[in-house]
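Lecture 7 notes: from sequence to structure.

We start with a single chain of 97 residues. Read the sequence below before looking at the structure.
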Amino acid sequence: MGIDKKNHEGYLDKTAHDAIRNIQREEKAADKKAAYLPLVYVCSPYAGDIETNTEKAKKYSRFAMDQGTIPVTPHLLYLVLCQDFGQLKYKNFQFLV
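Now the structure, written as tokens:
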């Protein structure tokens, strides 16, 4: 659907036409930007000081999200799985760390 260059009285109104066209162009660009978010693999240490390293990994993931990306942080996902499975199963997954 095109934008009419004339106002409701039939007079040429180029300013309003250009403003509406620019708004539509910006909305279209925003839709394209929102449609694509790159994946970012967050690689950080886990072993050693686990609590501090986990907090750092969360911080790095938050930074990646703030930059408009989708962070993939495997050892944080691993921790969630271990919490869901319980401590008994946790020992079975220790070889992954």
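The CA atoms of residues 34 and 71 lie 16 Å apart. Keep this in mind for problem set 3.
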